[in-house]
Amino acid sequence: MIDQFKRDINYIRISVTDRCNLACVYCMPKDGAVFLPKSEILTFEEIIRLCRCFARLGIKHVKITGGEPLVSKDIISLVGEMKRLEGISRVTLTTNGALLMEHLPGLIEAGLDGVNISLDTLTSDRYKEITRRDCFHQVYSAIEEAVKYNELQVKINCVPMADTSKEDIKGLAGLARRNRLSVRFIEMMPIGLGRNYTFCKEEELRALITHTYGEMTPISSAKGGGPANYYSLPGFVGSIGFISAMSHKFCNECNRIRLTADGYLKTCLQYEKGWDLKSILRRETSDVTLERAIALGIYGKPDGHSFHTPQYPEYYEQEYMSQIGG
Length: 326
Fold this sequence. Notes:
Blueprint (H helix, E strand, L loop, with lengths): L10 E5 L28 H14 L3 E5 L9 H9 L6 E6 L4 H11 L3 E5 L5 H8 L4 H11 L6 E6 L7 H13 L3 E5 L15 H12 L3 E3 L9 E4 L6 E5 L12 E4 L4 E3 L8 E2 H5 L5 H13 L21 H4 L2
Parallel strand pairs: 1-2, 1-10, 2-3, 3-4, 4-5, 5-6, 6-9
Antiparallel strand pairs: 7-8, 8-9, 10-11, 11-12
Helix pairs in contact: 1-9, 2-3, 6-7
Protein name: GTP 3',8-cyclase
EC number: 4.1.99.22
Catalytic activity: GTP + AH2 + S-adenosyl-L-methionine = (8S)-3',8-cyclo-7,8-dihydroguanosine 5'-triphosphate + 5'-deoxyadenosine + L-methionine + A + H(+)
């Protein structure tokens, strides 16, 4: 899984559904998204077969995404099957957290290594404003429960916007002071409805957090192999992370690819669907043929995004984040 720019691609995000029980303003339109028919969505059996191919080619870390993956029936069984695949060393899941509490025991038993929980505010009214749903307390309770499992790595994902309050930033960062988790601040990317919002730069967030809690010290060990840079702070149990694709472009170190719920291999988030693995899969072809298609797709992975200096706009992704795997 070495691409044309000599990057080692060992991490895949697999979307199991385009459906979600929330409707976040930067992810879904107010009047709702049009969902794919069930026949167009990869079955769990097809996902597992593709995972075997990915693993043989060098993928070691699988992140299960959506939409919201916990709305999918038998998601716990899928986690268990992935964990048993030869070559897959780590299986994690990203979720909005609203359904996490009821699934946690089963996910832990299935061997889930980590969970990323989306949370952009600590105010229930603001949460309802962003997500168009009233379930802040379910999410917060799930976070409190998740950190009780020592074997589970817990990360909070926050996407600050121009109107995100300083108190929310400070409060969210403060979760890592008293809890065994990482709070990551992610710069909004101009994809889908994200184009309508201004991202908050890492430097602005760092200045606010440093002023509130003290100097940050870089943590050299990676927490999951992704693009975040992590820091410790005085008196903090957990850590603070930044994923800054806009202000600190990290494409030269990108080690990941994506599989959409309808079976397309995406090698860069900015560009449209990519390689149609589902069609190859459903033609009853051999694993060798599948692996050849995957390898070709990987080799052609772009050198990076071009959000600041647009190139090839006719190939830009037009779908919402929920449709391509957030």
